[in-house]
Amino acid sequence: MRNNAVVSTKPTFLPLLRELARTYQTFEHYSAAHVQRLGLTPAQFDVLATLGNTPGMNAKTLADKTLITKGTLTGVVDRLHLKGLVQRLPDPTDGRRQIVRLTTKGQTVFERVFPAHGEHLARAFAHLSTKDQTLAMQALIVLRRAFERAATSSDS
Description:
Elements: H1 14-37, H2 42-51, E1 57-58, H3 59-66, H4 70-82, E2 86-90, E3 98-102, H5 104-125, H6 130-155
Antiparallel strand pairs: 1-3, 2-3
């Protein structure tokens, strides 16, 4: 009598996927804890960092650059506005849109927190040699391109 049980093979990419998720979660935890000590949420920091040293941008562009959904972005911008860190101005090229721009206070906060957070992240990267940083970046580029190719081929 033959055994008709299906033999399941574990996909070879699962350990890579697990490590990618664990690495991202660890990075997020390390980064978010510092940003919160600076008095911001990670999303608020993301918006400030994206708007810093720019003339501002509309919500769609800001959402695209921060990877925050437009619905979530509205609440984040509302809270930053209440803190006096951003302002909403009419978009001179499209009356239906608004430009979100840092206020003077927001620019001052950006100039304080952005370098501080960069120094915080640099402490983690200091544990990697230049060669290891280059290898990690190359591996991430290969992985990103694989996802881009897969997305392109699934769109057709």
